[in-house]
Amino acid sequence: MSWHRLEPADASIFETGPGSAPQLYRFPVRLDATPEQVWTSLASDESISAWPMGPGLGIGLRWTSPRPFGIGTTREVRLPFRAMTVRERFFRWDEGKGYSFYVESANRPGIRRFAENYEIEPDGAGARFTWTIAIEPAPRADFVLGLTRPVNQLAFGRVAAGAKRHFAKSR
């Protein structure tokens, strides 16, 4: 498998303005779980791959850094439909509250920068989980990735819905 290097990212990729990604997707969802339960799931060996996302949307992941995890942790993730495999590096790790990572390399070209942010906050007896995805296409892929924006919105939204189902049945 050949790997294509992506540019690193930091928290500015999730904001608006200079340094932000042209494609931002935010999915806030209230979960029927405590913040501790959500964090335990996110930091587990399976992480979000344990959440039911629907046919063809399953992912596989493998942490490539030893525990305890923190800033600099790495993992490899096989994305839905086995279309892409990425290697991720965590640049924020707030134990119990969330983390952020960027994709260092992918087995397919077309993306300049890609990052995700996971936030967990208390919300009454449950938790509010906000998942943010930031994508900056490579210059020649901008048009094509722009066309896939509605598909991305739908596919990414199924992960948030999967989180609701996962925690609803774990209570």
General description of the model:
The protein is α+β, with helices and mostly antiparallel strands. It has one domain: Alpha-D-Glucose-1,6-Bisphosphate, Chain A, domain 4. It is 20% helix and 37% strand. It has three helices and eight strands. Strands 1, 2, 3, 4, 5, 6, 7 and 8 form an eight-stranded antiparallel sheet that branches. A hairpin with a 2-residue loop joins strand 7 and strand 8. The mean pLDDT is 90.
CATH class: Alpha Beta
CATH architecture, by name, is 2-Layer Sandwich
Under CATH, the topology can be stated as: Alpha-D-Glucose-1,6-Bisphosphate, Chain A, domain 4
Mean pLDDT: 90
The largest β sheet comes out as: 8 strands, antiparallel
Structural class, judged by helices and strands?
A: alpha+beta
Give the SSE layout:
Layout lengths: L3 E2 L17 E9 L3 H8 L17 E4 L10 E5 L6 E10 L3 E9 L4 E13 L2 E12 L4 H6 L1 H21 L2
Antiparallel strand pairs: 1-6, 2-8, 3-4, 4-5, 5-6, 6-7, 7-8
What is this entry, summarized?
The chain has helices spanning 35-42, 142-147, 149-169; strands at 4-5, 23-31, 60-63, 74-78, 85-94, 98-106, 111-123, 126-137. It is an alpha+beta fold and 171 residues long.
